[in-house]
Design brief:
Blueprint (H helix, E strand, L loop, with lengths): L1 H27 L24 E8 L10 H11 L3 E7 L3 H4 L4 E3 L2 E11 L2 E6 L13 H10 L3 E4 L18 E6 L9 H10 L4 H7 L5 H11 L5 E5 L6 E2 L5 E2 L4 H5 L3 E5 L8 H14 L2 E4 L10 E6 L2 E4 L3 E2 L6 E5 L6 E7 L2 E6 L3 E5 L4 E13 L3 E10 L2 E3 L1
Parallel strand pairs: 1-2, 2-4, 6-7, 7-8, 15-22
Antiparallel strand pairs: 1-11, 3-4, 4-5, 5-6, 9-10, 11-12, 12-21, 13-14, 13-16, 16-19, 17-18, 17-20, 20-21, 20-22
Helix pairs in contact: 5-6
This protein binds zinc ion (2 copies).
């Protein structure tokens, strides 16, 4: 009996050791890659052929609602993280805008939007200069119309999270959050979360990266809607830097700076930003409305050189466009990285073709909603090669 118990103890210890070693290797394999080298060996900058793009954090809460940091603290975190722009979106208030916080802060463009509580869930209203809310249970279409008429964009927040978006019949809503850093870890298994806790003090970069997975359900919702109309998708941080404990106590975690380095939306504006906050807000919001943007798991590697375009002879159109089908139209994806990647092209949600390389060029077979995803190849001794989601494009609709 004693011998049996000892054997059990040894077995349990061996399993625990294996779990720790496997976890350590796995989290290590999730570490950031240094930025892709260019011919000159410096950090990549978009070449002259790439239109200007700006990387930012969308969906941030401050002490104006349930966030833990003041606007000044959030601005500092955004500057440290190297953001180009940041959309503050406190719950049901535009007060930070009225208090004069919107504008450039040493190179960082702080824009104030709002997260509006509606009958169908939480809705981001970006680029609206006035406070908006839903008037009565049937007032949702009017709210979305009002946002649109005021020059803003409306985006369903955490559509598959704990407070999901429930009304997909509203016509004019511009888009949805494909990734939400505050929701995405919640569907992970108990063991995965336990592993994250164990390694958080030692390998925080890898731990945060390991918790973001391909948003299967949000992609299905996106594609379902995109067959009927253009839909913008973004990656948001939903940063609070505040986990409530009991009474007035809370944990200042995860930090704003950490979240700003985890998920970003890169917005491709037609022209360079000017330094004038009003004009630049309009340019960014207009590009978001068009879907001229892409989502990056910035924690793996910045992606300033990514592009996804449809070409026809000398003409080319980018993400967010809708075009008619013509024989000979080709899709072109480039995804420079300092390590191995896999580019996968989807037509109506179904994988069409993929390549292990930094470029893909393919003639399209017919109409459809096309988007691309880029994966970073990461391997460990015990698990072999794994592919981890790095970039999701917006769609090009071919009708
Ligand atoms: Zn929310
Ligand atoms: Zn939120």
């Amino acid at each position: 009996m004693l011998k049996f118990r000892n054997t059990l103890k040894v077995l349990a210890a061996a399993c625990f050791l294996l779990w720790i070693v496997d976890g350590c290797l796995l989290i290590q394999s999730e570490s950031p890659r240094s930025a892709a080298p260019t011919a000159a060996g410096s950090a990549p900058v978009p070449g002259p052929e790439l239109p200007p793009r700006y990387s930012g954090a969308i969906h941030v809460h401050s002490t104006y609602s349930d966030g833990g940091g003041t606007v000044a603290e959030i601005v500092r975190a955004g500057q440290h993280a190297g953001l180009d722009f940041l959309f503050l979106t406190d719950h049901d208030t535009l007060q930070p805008r009225f208090d004069g916080h919107q504008g450039y802060h040493d190179g960082l463009l702080l824009l104030v939007g709002e997260e509006v509580n509606t009958s169908a869930g939480h809705l981001l209203a970006l680029g609206v200069g006035k406070d908006v809310d839903q008037d009565g249970p049937l007032g949702l279409p009017a709210l979305i119309e009002e946002i649109s008429e005021a020059g803003g964009v409306s985006i369903a927040a955490h559509p598959t999270g704990r407070r999901p978006w429930t009304d997909w019949t509203v016509e004019k809503m511009d888009g949805l959050e494909l990734l939400n850093a505050n929701s995405d870890w919640r569907d992970d298994g108990v063991l995965e979360l336990l592993r994250a806790l164990v390694f958080l003090p030692f390998l925080p970069d890898g731990v945060f990266n390991s918790l973001v997975d391909r948003p299967e359900e949000a992609i299905r919702l996106w594609m379902h809607r995109a067959r009927r109309q253009p839909v913008t998708v973004i990656g948001s941080v939903d940063a609070h830097e505040r986990i409530p404990l009991w009474g007035e106590r809370h944990l200042s975690f995860p930090t704003y700076e950490r979240m700003f380095g985890l998920i970003r939306t890169y917005v491709i504006t037609g022209t360079e930003l000017t330094g004038d906050a009003g004009a630049d807000e309009a340019a960014l919001v207009e590009a978001l409305r068009r879907g001229s943007c892409y989502v990056v798991l910035e924690g793996y590697e910045p992606a300033p050189g990514f592009s996804f375009e449809l070409t026809m002879g000398p003409d080319r159109v980018s993400m967010g466009s809708s075009v008619g089908f013509k024989a000979g139209e080709r899709l072109h994806v480039t995804a420079p990285s300092s390590g191995p990647v896999r580019i996968r092209l989807y037509r109506d949600e179904v994988p069409l073709i993929e390549t292990e390389g930094h470029e893909l060029f393919v003639e399209i077979p017919g109409p459809g909603v096309y988007h691309t995803e880029v994966y970073q190849m990461r391997s460990t001794l015990l698990r072999g090669e794994r592919q981890r989601l790095w970039i999701i494009s917006n769609a090009i609709r071919v009708e």
